[in-house]
Design brief:
Blueprint lengths: L1 E2 L2 E2 L2 E7 L16 E2 L2 E2 H12 L3 E6 L3 H8 L4 E4 L6 H6 L2 H4 L5 E6 L7 H13 L4 E7 L8 E4 L5 E5 L13 E10 H8 L15 H8 L4 E5 L12 H21 L3 E2 L5 E3 L4 E2 L4 E2 L3 E3 L4 E2 L4 E2 L3 E3 L4 E2 L4 E13 L4 E13 L4 E2 L4 E3 L9 E3 L4 E2 L4 E3 L2 E3 L4 E2 L4 E2 L8 E2 L16
Parallel strand pairs: 3-6, 3-8, 6-7, 9-13, 14-17, 15-18, 16-19, 17-20, 18-21, 19-22, 20-23, 21-23, 22-23, 23-24, 24-27, 25-28, 26-29, 27-30, 28-31, 29-32, 31-33
Antiparallel strand pairs: 1-2, 4-5, 8-12, 9-12, 10-11
Helix pairs in contact: 1-5, 6-7
The protein binds uridine-diphosphate-N-acetylglucosamine (UD1) and calcium ion.
Uridine-diphosphate-N-acetylglucosamine (UD1) binds next to helix 3 and strand 12.
Length: 426
């Protein structure tokens, strides 16, 4: 990681050994998802994006599930018994030993911290030469959290856990988020000294703050501006809460960038979506990660834009439309009740109501290619693989199984016959 022009070594330890009993799940809490991405994967990606040179996950309970999600993007250490947060970090000793630099401590179930916040934490620790820099927050109701003890000068002295706090300490509103940036060697030194002589009989990571202060090492804190960043997931209600926080954060960013979102509550725009200015998103729209949408488009209501879609400018994707891995050219209209999968369609096209691409033959996903200025009538089945040229016209109700060359009309339906009605005539 580059700090003020200098290359500095920064690693991250992710605590991922916890049980997550309150999820009432057969799966590890850490593999539950927010917007299609596992909690622990969000944390590992955050660690990477912040610039970590090395990432260690401390795994334990249901470790195979966590490993399956993270693969070889991190190194693993195993915590057999959950003896406390200090004990958990100590399991990473073999990776911390002999390294000069900083280590960030994160949690597999605290997944929506902003990258900028962590960067500021690390930068502060280097700039101010702090051996421990804590991420803290001010809570109206601090119950349950470790409290930050400062002296009259405002210097951090220690962290006291709720269960060990006296009545005065319980009044303190500054809480420990559990996220820190430590000097690697001084952390190791302090970790070896902590003892489980507290109300919970645990090895508290928080005890290293007092140990460092007693040794005369400088410590400090960064108070988080947006408390929602340090929220964790313990149960399914909190999973929903964090999804909501992320939804509002992502939508707000798009709105700041010139996108109109009519109803933020019902608009799920996943991570890393690009949307051009003056595009309007109507309610009940889902846009999956990685999708690109151009300028001045109209999307929804009730549109489902899935993975792999690239939408040009001035495109209309209307109601009850699902598109997947689809490239839609400028000014093309896909107005209602349509499924396009693995499809490329050029510019100035119109896709009629009820059109679907039959892209799956039971084994493979096949492609549909459509040129510019195509007019696809209503209720058309495009049986892929199939290619339609430019300026084609497809008659309503057709099931198209053969390619249609440019400037041709395709019609593939039974000719109508009118039969005389039997029985009573009026
Ligand atoms: C911890 C902090 C507290 C802080 C709070 C913020 C300590 C002693 N206290 O308290 O100051 O306000 O977080 O949420 O650190 N874990 C392991 N192995 C263990 C113990 C814990 O992996 O042996 C993991 C847990 O699964 C959990 C996290 O570490 O994800 C926090 O552990 P927990 O014991 O719940 O700490 P808190 O009581 O929340
Ligand atoms: Ca906890």
């Amino acid at each position: 990681m580059i700090i003020e022009g200098e290359e500095e070594f920064v690693m991250t330890v992710i605590m991922a050994a916890g049980k997550g009993t309150r999820m009432k799940s057969k799966k590890s809490k850490l593999v539950h998802k927010i917007y299609d991405k596992e909690l622990v994967k969000r944390v590992a990606e955050l660690a990477k994006n912040v610039g970590s040179d090395e990432i260690i996950a401390v795994v334990g309970h249901l470790k195979e599930q966590v490993k399956e999600v993270l693969g070889n993007s991190v190194k693993y250490v195993y915590q057999e018994e959950l003896l406390g947060t200090g004990h958990a970090v100590l399991q990473a000793k073999k990776y911390l030993e002999g390294k000069q630099g900083k280590v960030i401590i994160l949690y597999g179930d605290v997944p929506i911290i902003r990258k900028e916040t962590l960067q500021n934490l690390v930068i502060k620790s280097f700039k101010n030469k702090e051996y421990a820099t804590l991420l803290t927050a001010i809570y109206d109701n601090p119950t349950g959290y470790g409290r930050i003890i400062r002296d009259e000068g405002g210097n951090i002295k220690a962290i006291v856990e709720e269960k060990d706090a006296n009545m005065f300490e319980k009044e303190i509103k500054e809480i420990n988020s559990g996220i820190y940036c430590f000097d690697i060697q001084e952390l190791l030194y302090a970790l070896e000294l902590i003892k489980p002589n507290n109300a919970q009989g645990e090895y508290y990571l928080t005890d290293v703050i007092k140990i460092m202060n007693d040794k005369g090492l400088k410590t400090g804190a960064l108070i988080v501006e947006d408390n929602s960043e340090i929220l964790g997931v313990n149960d399914r209600a909190q999973l929903e809460l964090l999804t909501r926080v992320l939804r509002m954060r992502i939508n707000a960013e798009h709105m700041r960038n010139g996108v109109t979102i009519e109803d933020s509550n019902s608009t799920n725009i996943h991570d890393d979506v690009q949307i051009g200015v003056d595009t309007v998103i109507h309610p009940n729209t889902i846009i999956k990660s990685g999708v690109k949408i151009g300028e001045n488009c109209e999307i929804g209501p009730n549109a489902y834009i899935r993975e792999g879609c690239e939408i040009g400018d001035n495109v209309k994707i209307g109601s009850f439309v699902e598109i997947k891995n689809a490239k839609i050219g400028d000014r093309t209209k896909v107005p209602h009740f349509i499924y396009l999968g693995d499809t490329e369609i050029g510019k100035d096209g119109n896709v009629g109501c009820g059109t679907i691409t039959c892209n799956y033959d039971g084994k493979n996903k096949n492609k549909t290619k459509i040129g510019d200025r195509a007019f696809i009538g209503s209720n058309v089945n495009l049986v892929a693989p199939v290619t339609l040229g430019d300026d084609v016209l497809i008659a309503a109700g057709s099931t198209i199984t053969e390619d249609v060359p440019s400037n041709f009309m395709g019609i593939a339906r039974q000719r109508q016959i009118n039969k005389e009605k039997k029985g009573k005539k009026n």
